[in-house]
Amino acid sequence: MRTHILGYIQLNLQLQPPLTLSNTSPEITLSARNLSRRFGSLQVIHDVTLELKRGEVLGLLGHNGAGKSTTLQMLTGCLLPDSGEIEICSINLRRHPTLAKAHLGYLPETPPLYRELCVDDYLTFAARLRGVKSSDVPGALTHTLQRCGLDSVRKKIISTLSKGYQQRVGIAQAIIHNPAVIVLDEPTVGLDPTQIRDIRTLIRELGNAHSVILSTHLLTEVESVCDRVEIMQHGRLIYGDSSVRMQHYGQISGFIISLRHPPALNELEAIHGVTRVEQLSTEQFRVFHTPDDNSGSLLLSMAAQHGWQLEQLTPLHATLEDVFVKITGDETAKTGAPK
Prior knowledge:
Layout: H1 2-9, E1 28-39, E2 42-53, E3 57-61, H2 68-75, E4 83-88, E5 91-92, H3 97-101, E6 104-107, H4 119-129, H5 137-147, H6 163-175, E7 181-185, H7 193-206, E8 211-216, H8 219-225, E9 228-233, E10 236-242, H9 243-246, E11 254-259, H10 265-269, E12 274-279, E13 284-289, H11 295-306, E14 310-315, H12 320-335
Parallel strand pairs: 3-8, 3-9, 6-7, 7-8
Antiparallel strand pairs: 1-2, 1-4, 4-5, 9-10, 11-13, 11-14, 12-13
């Protein structure tokens, strides 16, 4: 992996001076069209098309093995697609790889760290490989250390740092040349809850000045970090929308009710618009109704009329896990199992 990423960043050695990309990049900073990739006889990526806008955090969501890492490797030029085109800030990645990669910062799933170096020395080395002029390296280093919260450990050997701080160093090497596009592959995998929170805060801050695409299989990551979501399954993009609208996909119409003196189950099921009732306990029920019917108001009226003594009425909300399962399940039902 270390050789893999060094091959990527060494292409920038002759690029001088470094570009100030965040203010000059076009509205669409990354565009991929009809990407496909095979490994031997197995096609793992099928006709993937996506765009990334300036100032946007895009989450590439999917189960392990869905093709996320392979897609990110193609987007960063570490792996050539068999077909399709990629443009970074309107520069064709295949035809002008050095220029295109100057606008990219990449953190693979395993951070490409020289663990025997201290943080300062490693990031100085990374800056020079990225094409930052010698005179500009101190300023780039200071700014990056501050952004990534690494000031307190800048003189420490990387191997002595916690995994959370090592992940911060990995992000720092990806942004030290101020790229327009930052690509992060599973940036919080293996971290503890506090470290995850800190890294997510950092990613959200990066999204204010850069375009960020990150892969994840963690639904909470999408909810807390991403503006937009693309869901990948079996090497195909099957769904794309804002993270807010994703949460309303297949929205559930219903509520949880608690009744101190509940009626028989069939009385609740007979209420106009109610489609199903599940009894959760002697006094609590999950009531589903058709989307167009306001069965809650009718139930409130009936509870008062019949002395059921309503204590709770809470609308049902689908979790992101529910939504993800429904989206991937709907796609499987449409297309069948992959061949």
